[in-house]
Write a structure and sequence with these properties.
single chain; alpha+beta; Elongation Factor Tu (Ef-tu), domain 3; OB fold (Dihydrolipoamide Acetyltransferase, E2P); Four Helix Bundle (Hemerythrin (Met), subunit A); six-stranded antiparallel barrel; four-stranded antiparallel sheet; 13 strands; elongated
């Protein structure tokens, strides 16, 4: 307890007495002793750094716990892991001729067979072209027929003129015909032969024109047949890009067909493991859509060249490592797998190992 002296008689009245404020040194000593000052409550020192430290320790512990809980299990011995996206042989249906779509038989998810007519395009313009080509061909054939008739006629005239010239020469030898008669007979024969040769040349030229006209007719027929677009392969319609009434241009995609019975999965294997893989090695595929089952597959192709790890593929190696692409041919999935599905794959390169009941992705 501190004692204060009264400054004088005026301060003897305790009701009006105010003790002086303690100095900073006195306040510090009071806090250290834990005593009460005349005008302050008891205060204890607080370390302002312990709370952030505690929070950091808690976060670190939680992070380590999540890491331990989510850390993938190692791939069993005798197996290799990879992942990628399910792929299929995509066939784009397109038109070779422009025109307006008047009918289609494309429904997404439906199966089509090779040769089925899936789209019909308005064909009036092609019909007109075909008719024009056929008319031209008919006219040329008629012209050539007329020329052939004339050529045959002049060849007959030439034969007659040749016999006449022979008779005139016999008569001239008997002095019954003059030299003028012989010249006329020879001129008639030469004229007939020239006419026959000219008509033969014209007929040959027309024959070439007829051949070109036949080609145009064939082209017009092919163009007309292209208005009925057929499915180029067996498969399932994944995408339909047209509607009835739309105008399409040559080469524009109309639909996308994929054979779901011949799907593939391409994974990337680190270079040091590629020597363990052989064609025909069995594999199992897992997708998120069917977490409780595996799909059988086998190695169908191994790339002949190495490459850096693709950006969209994650393998349990450094991204700067060289990898080889390995294609897995999926067996019949019953139409469950679709192109574009992300999938995990395990390749068994050691036949002595048995399949594990669960193969977690590393």
């Amino acid at each position: 307890m501190q004692h204060y002296a009264c400054p004088g008689p005026v301060a003897r009245d305790l009701r009006t007495f105010e003790p002086p404020r303690p100095t900073r040194a006195g306040r510090r000593s009071t806090l250290l002793r834990g005593t009460r000052s005349p005008d302050r409550t008891v205060e204890f020192p607080v370390n302002r750094f312990w709370l952030p430290t505690a929070v950091a320790l808690i976060v670190a512990g939680l992070s380590y716990g999540v890491f331990e809980a989510t850390r993938p299990s190692p791939v069993p011995d005798g197996f290799l892991y990879g992942n990628g996206h399910v792929e299929g042989t995509e066939v784009r249906v397109s038109s070779e001729v422009p025109g307006r779509v008047v009918e289609h038989r494309l429904e997404e998810g439906n199966q089509v067979l090779r040769g089925d007519t899936v789209v019909v395009i308005e064909s009036q313009s092609s019909i007109d072209l075909l008719q024009a080509a056929q008319a031209e061909l008919t006219a040329l054939q008629q012209s050539r027929g007329s020329l052939e008739s004339q050529r045959e006629l002049w060849e007959h005239h030439a034969e007659t003129a040749a016999r006449q010239r022979a008779r005139v020469r016999d008569l001239r030898a008997s002095a019954l015909a003059s030299d003028s008669d012989v010249d006329q007979a020879e001129n008639a024969l030469e004229e007939a032969r020239q006419q026959a040769r000219a008509l033969k040349a014209q007929s040959a030229a027309l024959q070439e024109q007829i051949a070109a006209a036949k080609a145009r007719v064939g082209l017009a027929e092919t163009r007309l047949s292209n208005h009925d677009i057929e499915a180029p392969a067996d498969g399932t319609v994944l995408i339909r890009a047209i509607e009835v009434g739309e105008v399409v241009q040559p080469g524009a995609p109309l639909a996308l067909i994929v054979d779901l019975d011949r799907l593939e999965l391409k994974v990337y294997v680190p270079e040091r493991y590629i020597g363990k893989i052989r064609l025909g090695n069995p594999a199992r595929i897992a997708v998120n859509a069917f977490p409780d089952r595996f799909f059988d597959a086998q190695v169908s192709r191994v790339d002949d060249y190495a490459q850096f790890t693709p950006r969209d593929i994650h393998v349990p190696e450094e991204r700067t490592r060289m990898v080889y692409g390995v294609t897995l041919a999926l067996e019949d999935s019953g139409g469950r797998l679709k192109p574009g599905m992300p999938a995990d794959a395990w390749i068994r390169w050691d036949d002595a190992k048995s399949w594990a009941s669960c193969c977690p992705a590393p």
